[in-house]
Write a structure and sequence with these properties.
With 407 residues, the chain is an alpha/beta fold. The longest helix has 15 residues. Strands 4-5-13-10-11-12 form a 6-stranded mixed sheet, with helices on both faces. The mean pLDDT is 97. Helix content is 40%, strand content 15%. The protein binds pyridoxal-5'-phosphate (PLP) and zinc ion. The site of zinc ion has 8 residues, from loops. Pyridoxal-5'-phosphate binds next to helix 4, helix 9 and helix 13.
């Protein structure tokens, strides 16, 4: 028997976490995992966490209980919180950090969620798992399904996911189904397939995924010694931003931190239903039918978790804005050239957003700021090559080098 329950974010009805739901059977709204946090003692938690290496499962007392002896894990999490002195100096921010979650086993933050999600799938004794994906979810799910020896089906928009991600899903042995249409179409199809074909869906509508992802917030608190003032994070489906907020608020509830950061959710201009809702001052989105951006990971027009993330960002006192593809690529280059980190375009959206927020005077430069870089740059070599200086073709001579360097 699990100690946690799943609860509807709208009507508050609670359900057993030993049953499979992706939405509230009573009102069709999103579900979240509720842990018995008041039973936990702050000092014992601190001692337990400090006895383990930085990782998702370091925080196991704050995660759903896994019935098996041990979770399906590749030691995800424990990613670097990189202090960005050069970028900070350039933009006049004294305390700027990037949480490089592209350093997870398959190169994105999704692994944090999959270790919990796949372990739960085995507890539930499901035969096969499935997801719709802009790329990273399929790469991660395929890897963890292989590790767990369980069937895996991924549905992707044909010809529209980055090469690195596609190659991962294929190499890890998933059945890859490419549909005509975009991510939102793939998402609708996988939900339908879950009912008719009895597949366990591990998209971020599965509340167990987000439990794993919230550990990035715990790690940041522990890496800094206390929470940052500001968290800037890319937003696609809205699961990760909601997961961070859950993490920060739970750390505070159990007495391990005193504050929570303001969350700034960054979208790409061509796929920005959540940023637009904030612009309009409304609590609901208007879906976009044909989303477009170079940041393929966040090319999403109808975000499944919009309600959770709008509430999370609002409750934190932050907001959501959008940035152009040019700003995203510019930020990606700056992070690579000045801070040594190769992040994928969606991952660079947070820094692009930060720059925009600073320049428009909406953020104080004296705050302690963490930007989340969600995915590794090697995921999308096509975009990197297209947007960088081309190699200079020379003959194999010193003269060739001199000519290229104009010396
Ligand atoms: C690299 C990267 N960044 C950001 C996101 C957006 O996260 P979410 O959909 O949880 O908002 C994704 C989702 O696929 C991603 O792969
Ligand atoms: Zn409900």
């Amino acid at each position: 028997m699990s100690r946690e329950v799943i609860k509807c974010i709208e009507c508050g009805k609670e359900y057993s976490s030993d049953e499979i739901f992706y939405a509230c059977p009573a009102c069709n709204n999103l579900l979240e995992v509720i842990l018995p946090l008041s039973d936990l003692d702050r000092d014992s938690l601190r001692t337990a966490f400090d006895s383990r290496p930085l990782s998702v499962w370091r925080y196991r007392e704050l995660l759903p209980r896994i019935g098996r002896q041990s979770p399906i894990t590749m030691n995800e999490g424990g990613t670097p919180l990189h202090s960005c002195s050069r970028l900070g100096e350039r933009f006049g921010v004294g305390n700027l950090f990037i949480k490089f979650d592209g350093m997870n086993p398959t190169g994105s933050f999704k692994d944090r969620g999959m270790t919990v999600g796949i372990s739960k799938a085995l507890d539930l004794k499901v035969k096969a798992v499935a997801c719709a994906s802009t790329g990273n979810t399929s790469a991660s799910l395929a890897a963890y399904a292989g590790l767990a020896n369980i069937g895996c089906i991924v549905i992707i928009p044909s010809g529209r996911i980055a090469l690195g991600k596609l190659s991962q899903a294929m190499m890890h042995g998933a059945t890859v189904l490419a549909i005509e249409g975009n991510f939102d179409d793939a998402m609708a199809l996988v939900m339908k397939a879950s009912e008719e074909l009895n597949l366990y869906v591990l998209n971020s509508v599965n509340p167990f995924r987000l439990e794993g992802q919230k550990t990035a917030a715990f790690e940041i608190c522990d890496q800094l010694g206390s929470p940052p003032d500001i968290l800037v994070i890319p937003v696609g489906n809205g699961g990760n931003s909601a997961a961070y907020w859950k993490g920060f608020t739970e750390f505070k509830k159990v007495g391990l931190s005193e504050d929570c950061p303001k969350i700034y959710g960054i979208q790409a201009v061509g796929a920005a239903p959540i940023a637009k809702a904030f612009e309009r001052g409304e609590e609901r989105i208007e879906p976009i039918s044909d989303p477009e951006t170079v940041a393929t990971a966040i090319r999403i027009g109808n975000p499944a978790n919009w309600k959770k993330t709008i509430r999370a960002i609002d409750a934190s006192g932050g907001t959501s804005i959008s940035v152009s593809d040019e700003e995203i690529i510019e930020a990606q280059k700056m992070i690579a050239e000045m801070e040594g980190m190769f992040v994928e375009p969606a991952g660079a959206a947070s820094i692009a957003g930060l720059i925009r927020l600073l320049e428009s005077g909406r953020l104080d430069r004296d705050r302690r700021i963490v930007c989340v870089a969600t995915g590794h740059g090697l995921k999308d070599p096509d975009s990197a090559i297209k947007n960088s200086k081309k190699p200079i073709e020379i003959g194999p001579t010193i003269e060739g080098i001199r000519a290229a360097l104009h010396i």
